[in-house]
Amino acid sequence: MLSGVTIIDPDDTYIEDTVTVGQDTIIEPQTYLRGNTVIGANCHIGPFAEIENSSLADGCRAQRCLIIESEAAENCNIGPFAYLRPGTKLARKVKAGHFVEIKKSEVGEGSKVPHLSYIGDTTIGRDVNIGCGTITCNYDGKKKHRTVIADRAFIGSNTNLVAPVSVGEGALVAAGSTITEDVPDGALGVARGRQRNVLGYIARKAEEAAKKAAENAENKVENKQE
Known about the structure:
nine-stranded parallel sheet, mainly beta, twelve-stranded parallel sheet, UDP N-Acetylglucosamine Acyltransferase, domain 1, 11% helix, 1 helix, single chain, 28 strands, extended
């Protein structure tokens, strides 16, 4: 604190003596900094952040998250409720948002994984957007496989990328797709069933239910008479 670090509540903050924290960084309560962790200057850490054997460069924000053996370059935004597992490397201005898990992956400058996604064994280029609910299916039950997403690609929400697979530069993957083959540069990848609307379905089901209920009532009356 005498070196210019703001610790909001020293009695509720836990920093091991192997940790380095830069000037003008703010540490919120219930933050745990452990091992060979290095926090840069002008960062905002916590509340409820646990960081172990990791480095966060200047200007990073990490709140309500768990970060283990990972690296984040300048001005990254991590959390809330993000989990960076060992081997994760975030370039400058990357967002790893709420309920995002990243493992053994590199995320390029300016790319965003905003929410509800799992990114494992993956290389993501610059300025990529990963839609909500995206999963890299990296494990086939025996081996781990890698996914590669090139610069400026856009991955639609609720996408499964079945590794090994690559998405080309500037490509677009349609929401709800399960991608099992490479998507070329600038292409649209779509892998989902065609929508079919069954007209009158609700009315027919209601009619069937009413008919069945009437038959059941009639059977009960007959059973009582017997």
